[in-house]
Amino acid sequence: MYALDPVHTRVMFAVDHAGFSRAIGTVSGTTGTLRLDPGDWSSAKVEAWVPLAQLELGDAEWNQAALATGLLDAGRHPHAVFVSGRVEAGDGGRLRIHGQLTLRGVTRPVVLDAVMNDVRRHPLPPFRRTAGFSAVAMLSRADFGISAWPGVIGDVVELRLEVEAVAAPDARFSEGLDPPD
User: Fold this and answer.
1) Domain locations along the chain
2) Cα angle at 30 between 143 and 54, to 5 degrees?
3) Would you place residue 181 in the very low, low, confident or very high pLDDT band (cuts 50, 70, 90)?
4) Which end of the chain is more exposed for a tag (fewer CB within 10 A), N or C?
């Protein structure tokens, strides 16, 4: 078992901003659990809790607007949660991670196209076994009930995830949608 490293795991998103540019934001502090056996991906599982209050768009007022009721509604739904269902292994460390994403209390299927970057002993103290992945996905904000500002904010959201997880024999998966302790 591995625990997601909240310092070295980051979620990045990009969405059209009124046709002028793609607004880019990040969320740090993701926690969760990962089970993997690179020789047998059928038993792999990941559960990730993304703390929306740690969203950063580069401006405090813009952050607040994105977290408000009309968009992410982080007051009522403080986490986005991803729980994998199955993992398909491809060539060269490529993976397709099928799972359910819950955002604003709405759960929809999402597929992450991922690459396993490495699994080995980390070169810095405390020298723990570490697994690293990069993943991308596209989703529709409307699928999650996020419909505010349709002429200003695009519907298609690109997600990019950079994930590090460290060996943690005591890590566990939560039951239901309550954040892990």
Assistant:
1) 2-167
2) 80
3) low
4) C
